[in-house]
Amino acid sequence: MKHSSVIFSVFICASLISCQSSSTSNDRERQLQDSLSMSTEHTSQTALDWAGIYQDTLPCADCPGILTTVKLYEDETYSYVAEYIDRKTVVLDTGKFMWYNNGSVVHLKGTDIDTRYKVGENVLFQADSSGNVMESEIAEKLSLHKVF
Fold it and tell me: Which InterPro entries match (predicted)?
């Protein structure tokens, strides 16, 4: 009888440990899912007021600059205008843009342009084909600031 009560006690302890281990595992899994959903919820696409007009004069090798205007619309379309200062050259393009890098980079690909911008707070940073922003002094000169 004493032997069976010891076995019963061991069985009860093992069951309790198993339940606690399972609930700890479930808690960890829930925390991981919550953190993953938070990381996808807080992107430039969802957390910033990205729609609007961005403009600045970008550097030009053989002219005083390029007045560049990008309009991003809520329906994920864009308008792009680049006016070369002291020239009669204007690049116009419109189209639908796509979000990349988990909603942090917009890709404007049209007839005359194929460019990416990392979306920041009231600013578009010129990005490379992988969506990375250059880490240099010129990076600031290639950014467009929100004007409206």
Answer: Cu-R_lipoprotein_NlpE
